[in-house]
Amino acid sequence: MKSKESGSAAVEVHDLDPQEFLEQVHSFEFWFEAVEGYLSGLTFGFRPDTVDITLPDLDRDRLITVLCNYCVGETAALEGASGLIAIAPNRMAKIFLSTQVVDEGRHLEVLLHRLRMLGVADPEAEMERRANRSLQLFKRRLLELVSSKDWEAAIFAQNVILEALEFTVFQNHARDADPITREVLLGIVKDERRHIGFGENELGRRLKTAPHIRARLGQVKKELDHLVLDTLEETMKELNVDAGEREKLGRSYLEAAARLGLQP
Fold this sequence. Notes:
CATH architecture: Orthogonal Bundle
Number of helices: 10
CATH topology: Ribonucleotide Reductase, subunit A
Number of strands: 2
Oligomer: single chain
Helix content: over 70%
Number of domains: 1
């Protein structure tokens, strides 16, 4: 992690006091340093010299379905993050969310490009045809929370629940993906870590001063968990992940909420 110059000495960001730390890690400067390190030299999320492989028809069809669902999730995050900027409680949160909007826009762009590489002429129409119903319902509910200006619930749904789902699924998928899809997903996963960190930090600080918020977040979690777990289950089936591994991934997703003291 890059250090911050303070006078004549370089200071590690984790040595800063809490307010300075937030100023640093929510800044565009920090965002640029973070993404430049792993996006430099890439074209649409992968190295130009990465060799594409021809997939068997069934594997290609399954990958298209999975990527269509990834696009729905990234669209939800893009629309959610952009809407949250207007209701963010402070300047630092607004700036961080503006960097997240850029991230989510890039994610959607590279996934759509990958679909076109796989021969999908109209990715938008294909998304509509193949999208998982539970994921569509999740997207609708997330945007309702944003439009109702429910800051804590919306951040929880987006930067903890949705980002934890994407992080879990993308990381697992990348292990056995074709070379280009693997590079695209690993680049996205690095952004998801930062998004989850923001959500957990924001909510963790609020829960310390307003513990009653926990009940509201628990209510949102109860409402959305089955949609997330249904989406994860269907996606992992498309990727031929066995039942034991799917159960393990479900637990991994639930751990994100548990870190905030919310029980399954």
